[in-house]
Amino acid sequence: MIHKHVTKARQGWHRWADSDNSLAALLIFLVLYGFFIYPLAGKDGKTDTLAAWSFSIVLVLGVLATTKHKGARLGMVVLAGLAFTSHWLHFFIREHAVHIIAAAASALFFFVLSWLIIARVFRGGGITIYRIYGAIAVYLLLGILWGEFYILIYLFQPGSFYFNPSTQYGEPPISELIYFSFTTLTTLGVGDILPVHPIARSMTTLEALVGQLYPAVLLARLVTLYQK
Q: Is residue 135 part of a domain?
């Protein structure tokens, strides 16, 4: 009897994980992670722990939201495992080199994740509301991805960004650079953080360009094709 319930629950889990519902789940958690949890990272030990666990959940949901293809999903599990291990290793070992590895692994995971979700959103079949959720999730992933790029740039060259007094609260300024990424992606341009190094300026310009073209081209196209 118990085995029957376990089997039924496992089948239900696989049906949910292989459906577009995982795209909606990823979007919801990305909103929580990017706008409520990550901004507090680096302020104290409790918020660091919350951010680390939230990052782990994003990795799991990201793997589920990529593709039904077993080979591609296995590859994402490997990338997620690398990002997970390096992220938690840096949580306990606050070494500069470990942080670089963790940021690079995270950037690689979010880059591949964004690519695979875009492929899933535009695969054959009708456009559903869940696919639109997935496209919006990619937009948020781009903000986090560029934030990881900025963190890498800062780790290699701390003077790459200028922070107005009272703007930088952490060292390295993880949450500040994620915030800078989203203000750049949305072309909000508050001006309290400025790119100084040429590479930082180039990445900022590229993100602003993507932030304008992505909603105007891809999201608009999806909404046009969506049928209730």
A: yes
Q: Which helix (H) or strand (E) element contains residue 161?
A: strand 161-163
Alpha-carbon distance values, 107 to 56, 113, 162, 189 (Å): 14, 10, 22, 23
Torsion region of 125: left, alpha or beta (phi above 0 gives left; psi -120 to 50 gives alpha): left
Provide the CATH number for the domain around residue 200.
1.10.287.70
Beta bridge partners of 193: 163
The first and second tokens of residue 172, run together, are 């390295």
Please give the Cα distance from 136 to 2 (Å, whole number): 40
- Phi/psi at 159 (5° precision): -85, 15
218 pLDDT higher than 50 = yes
What is the C-alpha to C-alpha distance for residues 33 and 50, in angstroms, rounded to an integer?
A: 10
| Domain-located, residue 59 | yes
Is the pLDDT higher at 226 or at 44?
Answer: 226
pLDDT of residue 44: 59
Kindly report the pTM of this predicted structure: 0.87
**Would 101 be classed as within a structural domain?**
yes
Q: Contact, 117 vs 141, CB < 8 A?
A: yes
Q: How many domains does the structure of the chain reveal?
A: 1
Is 134 inside a domain boundary?
yes
Supply the range of the domain harboring residue 215: 21-225
pLDDT at 20: 72
Q: How far apart are the first and last CA of the chain?
A: 41
Residue 67 is which amino acid? T
Residues in the chain: 228
The answer to whether residues 76 and 116 touch, using CB atoms and an 8 Å cutoff, is: yes
Residue with tokens 């296995």: 74
